[in-house]
Amino acid sequence: MRAAWTIAKREVRSYFSSPVAYVVLLAWIYVSGLSFYTMVYWFAGNPSTGGSDNPLTLFFGGTVLFWLPLLVFAPVMTMRLFAQERTSGTLEALLTSPVGEVAIVTGKLMAAMVFWITLWVPSLLYVWIVSRYGDVDLGTVASSYLGILGIGFFYMSWGMLMSALAPSQIVAAILTFLVLGLLFTAGIMQFVVYDDFREVLGYVSVWSHMSDFAKGIVDSRWLSFYATMTALAFYLTVRAVSWRRVRG
Q: In 3D, which of 203, 56, 80, 212 has the Cα closest to residue 138?
């Protein structure tokens, strides 16, 4: 665990020593702020939102304004994890060090999650703003952030896998966007399918998952889905790193 923590700290320093990280943060703050403003503006003119009692329910996954940016930002955040080290030539040094593949992958994922959580810290301001002018259920807010944390592990782990497999950062970002985009599209297909397959699609629909979390509903099925997808991507990444270590 100490080795994983050391790698995580190195990755976090690498993240925040790069101007790209701050560009991503500023871009995300702008996009999420615009989304929140849109929700507040729409809610002010349409106080009846089908059970939503404040704009936060819509902000946390209730519209496409939440999901489209994530499908773009997640690949950008994870593309460098392995692909950049391969390009710079430092991956060979890492793989030849006396550090196990599990520790390497754990450290990389921990660093990615630190950056993911950093993205969402400014959204606490939106919670505070809504609480000043209306009632906010802290339990619902907590469940919303729990859903965001689960999606973060899901998206970051699959982005990490694509970075471990891709020969460059650009290819890693494209692969991550395609994989997450296909899974997201499969999930929203539940709204146009009317047979037994609809239940299967609903299980993989992060939109439906987040809709429940934003209403204060913590469904163990969705948490199990995130845990399973994260574990699968983690295992495949470990195997990919192991293969590169043997091949190298």
A: 56
